[in-house]
Amino acid sequence: MKAIIVTGLSGAGKTQAIDCLEDMGYYCIDNMPPALIKSFIDLTGKGKGIDKAAFVIDVRGGRLFDDLKDSLEELKREAVDYKILFLEASDRTLLRRYNETRRNHPLSEGGPVAAGLARERERLEVLRKEADYVIDTSNMKSAQLWSEIKHLLTSGENNKSFIINIMSFGYKRGTPMAADMVFDMRFIPNPYYVKSLRPLTGNNAKVSKYVLKHKITDEFLQKAMDMIEMLIPFYIKEGKYSLNVCIGCTGGHHRSVAVANELHRRLQDSGKRTTLEHRDL
C-alpha cells in the first residue's frame, strides 16, 4: 500500500489537502491515532481493494500524537511505502485565518492563538525535518494547494517538484520567521525620496524601472540567480522540497517589492517553480 501522512500546523490547510487526496483516489482518515496506522495497513492489505491511503495526524490527538515517532519507525521496519506531507504557513497568515473562523487553537488552552502556534511549532519541529514534502500555504488559495499536491505526488523528479517561495518584506515589521535566505535591498537608492514615486509601490512600472535601472541591482540579481541555481541540488539532496527567499527593504513597499518581482520573473523564465508574496503591502 502507498500511504501519505498529512500533518503540519493547525490552520495551514490540512482539510483542503485531505479533500485533494480523496479526489486523487486515496482512502482518507482524519485525526488518525498514529498507533493504529500499521493495523489499518495490515487490515486493508488483505484483499480489501485499498491500495493507497492518507492519514491526517496532528496535535489534536493530544497524547496519542506522541506515538507517531514509534509508529513511523514501525512502518520503516516493515518497509511500508509512505511519505510525509507537512503543511505550514506564516504566523501572520495563521492568525488571520483563526480570526476569520473564530476558532480556538488546539494548544492555546483558551489563551491567545499566538501562544498555541508557538507551542505547536516547537512540538512539530522534528517531524517537519522528517517530512518528504513541505508546503507553505501562506500565499496559496485552495486551488493552488490542490495543484501543488498533485504535482508533488505525481512528479517523478525532485528537481521538477522543487519550489522557490519569494517574499518581499519591510525590516520595520521584522524578518520573516520561515526565511531560508534573506537579502537586504537597502543598498539600492530609495524611491521613497523621489516625491512622485513615494506614494507608489514596487508593483508600479515607474518604481520598478527606477529600482532596476541601477547597475548594482542588476549585478545583485545575476549573483542571486547564480547562488540559488547552485544551491537547489544540495537542498534537494538534504530532503528539502522548497526554498524560502526573502527580500527586504526599510518599509517593504518599494525596493524589496520591485526586486522580488524581478527575481520571480527571472526564475520562472529559467524554468523554476515559484510563488510570490509581498508581506507588507
TrEMBL record:
Coiled-coil regions listed in the entry: 65-92
Ranges for domain RapZ C-terminal: 163-281
Binding sites annotated in the UniProt record for ATP: G8, L9, S10, G11, A12, G13, K14, T15
Keyword Nucleotide-binding carried by entry: yes
A Pfam family reported for this protein in Swiss-Prot or TrEMBL: PapZ_C
Keywords: ATP-binding, Coiled coil, GTP-binding, Nucleotide-binding
Highest taxon above the source species: Bacteria
UniProt binding sites for GTP: D58, V59, R60, G61
GO MF entries: ATP binding; GTP binding
UniProt cross-references to InterPro entries, sorted A to Z: P-loop_NTPase, RapZ-like, RapZ-like_N, RapZ_C
Sequence ranges assigned to domain RapZ-like N-terminal in this UniProt record: 1-154
Family annotation (HAMAP family): RapZ_like
UniProt name for this protein: RNase adapter RapZ
Species of provenance: Lentihominibacter hominis
